[in-house]
Specification:
Elements: H1 2-12, E1 24-29, E2 40-49, E3 52-61, H2 66-70, E4 78-81, E5 84-95, E6 99-104, E7 108-113, E8 127-130, E9 136-138, E10 156-158, H3 161-178, E11 182-188, H4 189-253
Parallel strand pairs: 1-11, 9-10
Antiparallel strand pairs: 1-2, 2-3, 3-10, 4-7, 5-6, 5-11, 7-8
């Protein structure tokens, strides 16, 4: 999976960090549109030597919970982080002034889900960039949290408190070498699925168009061929009729 993920970053044109303990923090948004689940993943990988990579995977949500979808903090709707690579957008700080997490310090891009229902809306809404407190933090302080609920209004949230503690310990290693700034990359497989569906639709429409054009040309060609055959048959009938008339005239004068 690590090799595929590194290839995916390259394919998307995102930076892959390869210095020792310089973190690649990558969120993978699943194809599922069912809200209130921790069904996404956070991948953390870095080198400890030129030929060795350390690799960790944690369960998270990249989507807001149903509470904030139905009760957005902003009139325009609840924030959903858009796919992208946000360089040096995060730093170790206090989430809501309570505990250490990665907090947003530079602009990111979001979409606003303004329908005020419990369905994640990725087709409508407006993209905007800025500071929205889209942090990377945990859900409950202990154990594993089953549903997102109020734990995310657009933040990237860990399902398990122990996983989050491990993540923060790893972040300290990066901070010691490269300072208190972190790049976060979000890859949205849901977006890829929508694009694939649209491309399939365009392809199908193109095939229908080509088929319709082909059928039209086929019928036009058949019509031309039939017209030629009918014209030829009429000419033959006319020649036969004239030949018969001449023969009848010769018989009469004989």
């Amino acid at each position: 999976m690590l090799q595929r993920l590194k290839a995916l970053l390259k394919y998307k044109g995102f930076v892959l960090y390869s210095k020792p303990y310089q973190f690649n923090i990558v969120g993978l948004r699943s194809k599922s549109t069912i809200p209130n689940r921790f069904d996404d993943e956070l991948h953390v990988f870095y080198t400890t030597s030129p030929l060795h990579w350390e690799y960790h995977v944690f369960k998270i949500t990249t989507d807001p919970g149903t509470f904030w979808l139905e009760n957005p903090m902003q009139e325009q709707g609840t924030a959903i982080l858009a796919e992208g690579q946000y360089k040096n957008a995060y730093a170790i700080g206090l989430h809501q002034g309570k505990y250490e997490a990665l907090v947003q310090q530079n602009p990111v891009t979001i979409m606003r889900d303004y329908d005020r229902n419990a369905i994640l809306d990725f087709y409508n809404g407006k993209k905007m960039s800025g500071l929205f407190s889209i942090n990377i933090h945990r859900a409950n302080s202990t154990g594993t949290t089953k549903t997102v609920d109020k734990n995310s209004a657009g933040c990237q949230v860990f399902e398990n408190a122990s996983d989050f503690a491990t993540f923060m310990q790893l972040c300290k290693k990066h901070e010691q070498r490269y300072g208190n700034q972190f790049t976060y990359t979000l890859i949205d497989f849901r977006s890829w699925r929508r694009q694939s569906i649209r491309r399939a639709g365009f392809f199908a429409a193109g095939l229908l168009g080509v088929g319709a054009a082909g059928y039209y040309l086929y019928t036009q060609q058949n019509r031309k061929t039939n017209n030629k055959q009918n014209k030829k048959q009429k000419n033959n009938e006319l020649l036969f009729k004239k030949s018969t008339e001449r023969q009848n005239q010769r018989i009469q004068f004989a």
